[in-house]
Amino acid sequence: MLRMPIVEALLRSFRPKDLSKVKIIGVQHILETIHGMFQLLYKYGLKPQNISLLGKCYSTCTEVFNEMKQEGIDVSLRSFAYDSHLPFDDLFKNEVQKFLNLKILDISKDKYDLIIVLDDGGKCINFLSSKIDKNFPQIVALEQTSSGYHAIKNETLPFPVINVARSPIKLKYESPMIADAATERLCSSLVERNLTFTKALILGEG
């Protein structure tokens, strides 16, 4: 299992109560880091089948997607959705709405004590805020990006949102750890495929 020092330290300091009736839903990069975080939470009662995720086509790792599915996590096949003739933001907004429309009935039931919304870009929070009424269970959301925070900061939302994007831990510690985890996964994938290379092109500015 992937080592996650910050998450492990937080769990040691703030041991969560039973998570068996907690639902996690949202938009996430389907990568080993998010999967590793969920696996650490299983020991506190979180159930794989209570996790529903939509990934983004450019960051969905097929290996991790398959591992999540085998484990029982509800990760949408639309995580791979792509259309070369549509702007990504328009396409993804539609995918988020389709995904959440399929999950609204489930999260509105009283079988959960708490709904945790994990968002990466604000689209999930924006859409859910228009669907929530007083009959829903308690909801709390986490926005993980600055762009997502700016997209929702002027909205009147029916549930609290924690701005993770500007937290000191994320800014100072998380990025190097993600880089290490991504490098390790890439190298192991290359070895499994017996691939070698002398040059690499890195795309993105994250």
Write the SSE topology.
Layout: H1 5-13, E1 22-27, H2 32-42, E2 51-54, H3 62-71, E3 74-75, H4 88-107, E4 114-119, H5 123-129, E5 138-143, H6 146-152, E6 161-163, H7 168-192
Helix pairs in contact: 4-5
Structure description:
With 206 residues, the protein is of the alpha/beta class. It is 43% helix and 13% strand. The chain is built from seven helices and six strands. It has helices spanning 5-13, 32-42, 62-71, 88-107, 123-129, 146-152, 168-192, and strands spanning 22-27, 51-54, 74-75, 114-119, 138-143, 161-163. The chain has a six-stranded parallel beta sheet. β4, α5 (123-129) and β5 (138-143) form a beta-alpha-beta unit. α4 (88-107) packs across α5. It is globular. The model has no long low-confidence stretch (mean pLDDT 90).
Short account of what is shown:
The chain has 206 residues and is an alpha/beta fold. It has helices at residues 5-13, 32-42, 62-71, 88-107, 123-129, 146-152, 168-192; strands at residues 22-27, 51-54, 74-75, 114-119, 138-143, 161-163. α2 links the parallel β1 (22-27) and β2 (51-54).
Essential attributes:
single chain; 206 residues; alpha/beta; 6-stranded parallel beta sheet; 7 helices
